[in-house]
Amino acid sequence: MASETRPLVVLQLDWQGDLRFAGRSGETGMALDGDGRAAVSPVQALAFALAACMASDVVHILRKGRLDLGALQARLTGERAPEDPRRFLKIALQFIVSGEVPADKVERAIALSLEKYCSVWHSLRQDIELTTSFEVQG
């Protein structure tokens, strides 16, 4: 969310057999599996990236507003095209927020993430139908 210039994203994937890969970017690693059996699939990783990007924005915005955020959970459901390349057509992302957080503040944080901050969302095709919802649990 910060305005500073971000470095290039540099990563490496090493084939581990079948459709499994070990990924590394700097000191951080992850496993991917094209079949989604031994690790998350590339499409699941993309969905995780979108949910994590927006959830990070929402947490950052709410905490910056000094709100009493106790917990946040994001739940994503993605509908994919039936034929190859089976891209995402629709994504529904729900946030469950716990704490003394006014609903209008959560709504505004989600809107800011979508409109301005979430680089993952802005890197995806803009014809994907994305809906968001939230629930605040006191």
CATH architectural arrangement of the largest domain? 2-Layer Sandwich
- Relevant CATH superfamily of the largest domain: K homology (KH) domain
* Overall strand count: 6
What is the helix/strand order?
A: EEEHEEHHE
Key attributes of the depicted protein:
38% strand; alpha+beta; 2 domains; 3-stranded antiparallel β-sheet; 3-stranded mixed β-sheet
Could you explain the architecture of this structure?
The protein has about 140 residues and is an alpha+beta fold. The protein has 2 domains: about 1-40; about 40-135, K homology (KH) domain (GMP Synthetase, Chain A, domain 3, 2-Layer Sandwich). The protein is about 30% helix and about 40% strand. The chain contains 3 helices and 6 strands; from the N terminus they run E-E-E-H-E-E-H-H-E. The chain has helices spanning about 40-65, 105-115, 120-125; strands spanning about 10-15, 20-25, 30-35, 70-80, 90-100, 130-135. It has a 3-stranded antiparallel sheet, with no helix packed on it. A hairpin with a 2-residue loop joins strand 2 and strand 3 (about 30-35). The radius of gyration is 17 Å and the shape is globular. The mean pLDDT is about 95.
Summarize the structure.
The chain is α+β, with helices and mostly antiparallel strands. The protein has helices spanning 42-64, 103-117, 119-123; strands spanning 12-17, 20-25, 28-33, 68-80, 88-100, 129-137.
Would you spell out the secondary-structure blueprint of this structure?
Elements: E1 12-17, E2 20-25, E3 28-33, H1 42-64, E4 68-80, E5 88-100, H2 103-117, H3 119-123, E6 129-137
Parallel strand pairs: 5-6
Antiparallel strand pairs: 1-2, 2-3, 4-5
